[in-house]
Amino acid sequence: MNFDVKTEKLSDEQFVISLAGEVDLYTAPEFKQQLLEVIDQGGRDVIVDLSDTTFIDSTTLGVLVGGVKRLRTNEGQLSLVCSDRNITKIFEITGLDRVFTIHGTRDEAVASLGSESTA
Questions:
Q1: How many CB atoms lie within 10 A of CB 98?
Q2: What is the per-residue pLDDT across 34-60, written as a single tens digit (0 to 9) for each?
Q3: What pLDDT digit, counting tens, does each position of 2-35 carry?
Q4: Contact 49, 17 (CB under 8 A)
Q5: Which pLDDT does position 74 carry in this prediction?
Q6: Side-chain half-sphere of 52: how many Cα atoms within 13 Å?
Q7: Range list of β-strands (E), the chain
Q8: What span, in angstroms and rounded, lies between the C-alpha atoms of 85 and 116?
């Protein structure tokens, strides 16, 4: 099983969590722990980069939805980076494409943080 998670702090309130490999029942708890740590550190604008992710399951979706709920109570937001059609289709089928802003590239996601925080 190949899985990797990296967290990058862009500012006091902005973080990018990059996931690689398969994010499933076995690896999602590690992702959840990283996400909760970022929120506990004051993260309000969190980008989850799925660019190098090959598979996600319902456990992963649950972690993402839980993250959104926590961030919204702090007036924060969680957005995604994903260009893999198979993965974006999962968000469309479940209706979660209306919950998350999904960007095609990491640069687009980071640029939108700047424009949304200054607006």
A1: 9
A2: 999 999 999 999 999 999 999 999 999
A3: 899 999 999 999 999 999 999 999 999 999 999 9
A4: yes
A5: 86
A6: 10
A7: 3-9, 14-23, 45-56, 77-81, 101-103
A8: 26
Supply 93's token pair: 């089928």
What's the token pair of residue 97?
């494409």
Distance CA(44)–CA(91), nearest Å, equals 22
24: containing domain: 3-118
Task: Label residue 90 by pLDDT band (50, 70, 90).
Answer: very high
The type of residue at 26 is: Y
The closest of 22, 20, 25, 24 to 5, measured between CA atoms, is 20
Q: Which two tokens stand for residue 104?
A: 């095609």
| Count of domains for the chain | 1
Structure tokens at 16: 């990018």
CATH number for the domain harbouring residue 46? 3.30.750.24
